[in-house]
Amino acid sequence: MKLTGECNRCGMCCMPFGYRCQHLIIEKLPGTPEATWCAAYEFRHDGMPILLFGRNGSIVGTGKCWKGSQKETEAIMELGVGRGCSLTPEED
């Protein structure tokens, strides 16, 4: 599965299980266009360790950035598409 279109920075793919990646900067309601940006965008890489924060700002666990991987596509499909994401699925 591939995704087409341009990311609208809704931020939903960086919020697994309702938690927030440590690098996700939220400026508006997640799920709306231009709501977020990634503070690590320039240096992020597939498998990069990240901290996950809960709603109250406390660390709730660890995760990995999936930049450019099939896992990233799966996360976008699961967490973003239909929830504010501007990307659309395209069969290979």
Task: Please describe the structure with a list of short key phrases separated by commas or semicolons.
92 residues; alpha+beta; 3-stranded antiparallel beta sheet; 1 helix
What does this structure look like?
Helix content is 12%, strand content 27%. It has 92 residues and is an alpha+beta fold. The longest helix is centred in the C-terminal third of the chain and has 11 residues, at 70-80. The protein has one helix at 70-80; strands at 2-4, 20-21, 24-26, 36-38, 49-53, 59-64, 88-90. The chain is built from 1 helix and 7 strands. A 3-stranded antiparallel sheet has the order 2-5-6, with no helix packed on it. A two-stranded antiparallel sheet has the order 1-7.
Task: Indicate the percent of residues in helices.
Answer: 10-25%
pLDDT < 50 runs, ≥5 residues: none
> Which structural class do you get from the secondary structure elements?
alpha+beta
Taking Cα atoms only, what radius of gyration do you get, to the nearest Å?
A: 13 Å
Number of strands: 7
Strand content: 25-35%
Strand order of the largest sheet: 2-5-6
Report the major sheet.
Answer: 3 strands, antiparallel
What is the count of DSSP helices, taking H or I runs of 4+ residues? 1
Q: Per the principal axes of the C-alpha atoms, what is the gross shape?
A: globular
Helix-strand pattern: EEEEEEHE
- What's the overall average pLDDT, rounded? 94
**Separation, N- and C-terminal Cα atoms:** 6 Å
